[in-house]
Design a protein that fits this description.
The structure holds 2 protein chains of 2 kinds. Chain A contains 4 helices and 2 strands; from the N terminus they run ααββαα. Chain A is mostly helical. Classes of the chains: A mainly alpha, B alpha+beta. At the A-B interface, α4 of A face β2, β3 and β7 of B.
């Protein structure tokens, strides 16, 4: 248990919540990359984080890294500068990204013509599962902050 | 409660949908890993499950401990083309009411996403919408 003088509670909680927000953004980005189906690695390496903004150009053609790349902020320093009050969009702007989200939505016509409807590597609604996991994770971590304070 | 049986959760989710759609008007339902050959211009529903991670809720080992299992359900609704969207949303409404914030046999469903329109439906020749929801279940070891 940490004893905080009343006049410092506001600043303390703001600091704690900003750290939690930062952790949620970085962890969500990491889980999205870990769950991403990989062929050339373009889709996995194309996850971006935008502060109040889901825009951002996709990567040009490869080669792409095989591993998990660091968080990529489109309009701010991702992993360093998250602040409460903003909305952080973890997004993938590749034209076929939605088709790899496991829901069967957004299948490009060219894929359909070739008989491709998604990836067999991770064919369930894995983005929804990550969203649910992160909601629970954030609630648990917030409870830890309250218990420590 | 005891350790979660994944097939019990699957049966709870799929059984609820199957029971509803076997009531008139009957709509065929197809689940994962089942073959199905739809008639053109008829309606049918596809239900798919995905399980996520087991999360710690308490300390402990294989006994005297609690976990939470999360997952997601994807339900695709197919209806005939060139007849408007109404019949599709009638089915969507029936399915939405089945799960929306319901707690059934220990499975807790979150609010529903959809029905959202799906462009380029697979199989072709149908009007398709999609309902998705996440759920959680608890286990006491």
């Amino acid at each position: 248990m940490m004893i905080i003088p009343p006049e410092r509670i506001g600043g303390h909680m703001e600091f704690q919540i900003n750290q939690l927000l930062r952790a949620v953004v970085i962890e969500s980005d990491a889980r999205a990359k870990l769950g991403s189906p990989v062929d050339t690695g373009r889709f996995r390496s194309d996850w971006q984080i935008g502060e109040n903004d889901p825009d951002g150009r996709p990567n040009i053609d490869g080669p792409f890294p095989n591993g998990i790349t660091p968080p990529k902020g489109t309009n701010y320093a991702a992993g360093f500068d998250e602040k409460i009050g903003n909305v952080y969009h973890i997004h993938n702007n590749l034209p076929y990204a939605e088709a790899l989200s496991g829901t069967g939505q957004g299948i490009p016509r060219s894929w359909k013509a070739a008989g491709i409807t998604g990836s067999k590597q991770n064919s369930g609604a894995w983005v929804d599962v990550i969203s649910k996991e992160m909601t629970n994770w954030a609630q648990q971590e917030y409870q830890k902050i309250l218990r420590r304070t | 409660m005891a350790a979660v049986d994944l097939n019990d959760i699957r049966k709870t989710i799929e059984g609820r949908l199957n029971d509803e759609l076997q009531a008139a008007p009957i709509i065929p339902v197809v689940f994962a890993n089942q073959s199905f050959d739809p008639d053109s211009n008829s309606s049918f529903v596809q239900c798919l499950l995905a399980f996520g991670e087991d999360e710690y809720l308490s300390q402990g080992g294989t006994t005297n401990s609690n976990n939470r299992l999360v997952g997601a359900v994807t339900i695709n609704i197919f209806t005939g083309q060139n007849i408007g969207a109404g019949s599709n949303y009638v089915i969507g409404n029936r399915i939405r009411d089945l799960y929306n914030r319901q707690v059934v046999s220990g499975v807790v469903f979150d609010p529903i996403i959809g029905p959202s329109l799906v462009s380029n439906p697979v199989p072709e020749g149908f009007f398709q919408t999609q309902i998705r929801m996440t759920f959680e279940a608890y286990e006491d070891l």
